[in-house]
Amino acid sequence: MGRRAKQPDDGLEFDFTKLRTQRRRLDVAQRELAALIGANANAVLDWEKGRGEGPTLKQAIRAAIRLGTRIEDLFAVTDYSGDSRWPRRHRERD
Of 3, 14, 21, 63, whose CB has the highest number of CB atoms within 10 Å? Predict the structure, then answer.
């Protein structure tokens, strides 16, 4: 599994590996993506290295749109325990 930055404890983490994979697939430079989503020039580099807080929700949505993917494809679910919609085997991982 790729590096992920911890977001608020809601069971979701922004997955930097997925961002990098999508960006490279489209041959978009880090600085170019940063400009497209309204982030500073080094932000995408930092995110892909797992540094900093990660993108804001607005930036993550913009990245998904610019990269032609769904917003949920840029996040990883890390805690299924409180969500009864998930099968029990996922909710009781520990």
Answer: 63
- Report pTM: 0.69
Return the structure tokens found at 36. 């497209």
Residue 91 in 3-state DSSP? helix
Q: For residue range 62-93, list pLDDT tens digits in order.
A: 999 999 999 888 887 766 565 555 555 554 54
Give the span between the Cα atoms of 43 and 56, in whole angstroms. Answer: 11
Cβ neighbour number for residue 33 with a 10 Å cutoff: 24
Question: Count of domains in the chain?
Answer: 1
Question: Distance between CA atoms of 92 and 94, rounded to whole angstroms?
Answer: 6
Residue 51: the pLDDT is 85
CATH number of the domain that residue 39 is part of: 1.10.260.40
Instruction: Determine the structural domain holding residue 8 and report its residue range.
Output: 4-91
Whether the pLDDT of residue 34 is over 60: the answer is yes
